[in-house]
Amino acid sequence: MRHGVARFVTGFLALPVGLYLFYVVWPFLQAAGYSLTDWGGYSDRQQFVGLENYLRLFSDELIRKAFWHNVFFLITVPLFTIALALFLAFLLNVGGREDKAGIRGVFGSGLYKVIFFFPQVLSLVVIAVMWQQIYRADGQGLINGMLMKIGLVSEDDPITFMYDPEPFLGVPAVLWWLLLIAVWSGAGFYMVLFSAAMQSIPKDVYEAAILDGAGRFHTFFRITLPLLRDTVSVAWVYLGFIALDMYALVFVMTPSQGGPNHASEIFASVLNFTAFQKGQFGYACAMGVALAIFTILLAALQLRITRRERIEY
Amino acid sequence: MSTVTHTPGGLAGPDQTPPPTRTPAPRAAVGGGAGARFFNGFSHLFLAVWAIMVVYPLLWVVMSALKTDSEVIRKPLSLIPEQLQWNNFARAWTEGQIGSFFLNTVLVLTGSVFLTMLLGSMAAYVLARYDFPGNRLIYYMFLSGLTLPIYLAAVPLFKGVYNTGVVLPFLGPNSHIMLILVYVAWSLSFTVFFMHSFFHTLPNAIAEAGMVDGASHSRLFFSVMLPMAKPGLISIGIFNVLGQWNQWYLPTLLMQSVAGEPKNQVISQGLIELSVNQGYRSDWSGLFAGVTMAMLPVLIVYIVFQRQVQSGLTAGVGK
């Protein structure tokens, strides 16, 4: 019998573990190894250089820029997406009439939920290519075209969107435009998530609050929001990962994948540029390892901050 | 008993209601009927505006796909084409190669989603329900893949695939089978993580009853445990279909032509190149048609199965 179990376990694990080791773990380990060399990627010549690549990261102007852009997305993407999603979920669930049964969701909330979820099922690439056309820097673009029609933007001076490196609040305008797309595509999903969480809060909690004379704002801020804490913090962690992964948008939409003039560089775009355009594989791997360490620290930090006792009901 | 829910001022109208010293402002504003009606109206307005912001760009893309090129330039904003240009779709399908992108994507996804589900649940099942040395180690090895950025592995992964291709061409760059295996490997982390928690909660009694009846371990898995995990399988299945359909980085990295043969591009990868090429050719209507064809099938499937898709994807986050 024991023998049968061992064979069964090995048989079931062999393929998945084998594939995972070969296509995921092994490349990661190799990357860690290459990060200690000056390998160029195209020749077989590589020399051990120790931590030189890592030291170089700290003095690299481009990396510093990309790092701050990553931090910008890391803060703004979750912040704006969650705020908007919570607001939409609030309107959807509390915006309806008050009657005997308490406060209701708005009429047609099912339809709204279906529509708001649309961007979630579209691929980032489709979204990027679509927004490329919306953001066109001439009258043919959706936004510029509209603003020209109502006379807010003159034909000779359109909004340049992806070609605008000018800082706004200290951050290049192009990043703000990218942020808008991220929020546009993410808000609906998290609204549905928050809505579901709101609906799983038992009715009698609300009934008690209403009996005590709480209005809908009070109910929302004093009861719903605190009870949503868990869901919101999970959403924050997920959005954090998404924010680190804005590369699809940068890759498709910005001039020379990180431009104009490096105004929209993020870690991933610098890494790809270094590896495949400049041919400095060793150095690119060091960037990757740094990014991985950063990600893991961040995940650990977020889990630590958001950990709290669960409320059971 | 609806009056119980209102502050007394509700009947008199919100303006001259309760002593401001005691009642906070928001309560006064919404407690009454007029306030509630105003709030209801505001909710509808805001929700409708956001709904338009979501739908309008999509509609604009679809409608632009039915215009002529000159119309796209002359009247970029109009949502009603002068004459429906269905041939844009034909052009994007053949010249723009959307047709072959679709074929490649379907070929790859059929294999990769099936294998991901099968291998993922097999690994998750064994890790969740059997105790053996190294169990934790393997589980954490799968978990660690969730936090590591894919870009880090890019360079060695490409090199590994390239070297394998020298010996075994069907596992080299630009091969469907290679892409299937890579997709599976990269999807295992989350699939194992998700299904692990599912198998963990299945009752022991049923497994024991199966064993008593003389079922082998693998038979127990395929005919008893796997069917019991069906809700989880649907969730993670939807998640993987969407995730792999949307994958663009791995194909861009790995589906590269090596010896000059045509690239076997998948849809996301192809669309990126289409957007560049059609831009050079100023074939805007063709580009819009391509985007439309890439997004409509997913949207339609979503609208039909919206309940399952929504709960499937949100369950993925909740775990």
Report on this model:
- The complex is a heterodimer of chains A (313) and B (319).
- Helix content of chain A is 68%, strand content 3%.
- Chain A has 313 residues and is mainly alpha-helical.
- Chain A has a single domain, classed as MetI-like (MetI-like fold, Orthogonal Bundle).
- In chain A, the strands form 2 sheets. Chain A has a two-stranded antiparallel sheet with strand order 1-2.
- The longest helix of chain A is centred in the N-terminal third of the chain and has 34 residues, at 61-94.
- The radius of gyration of chain A is 25 Å and the shape is globular.
- Chain A starts with a helix and ends in a 7-residue tail after the last helix.
- Chain B has 2 domains: 2-12 and 23-90, no CATH class; 96-318, MetI-like (MetI-like fold, Orthogonal Bundle), CATH 1.10.3720.10.
- Chain B has 16 helices and no strands.
- Chain B is globular, with a radius of gyration of 27 Å.
- The two termini of chain B are 40 Å apart.
- Mean pLDDT of chain B is 81; it is low at 1-31.
- The interface between A and B is large, with 106 and 101 residues.
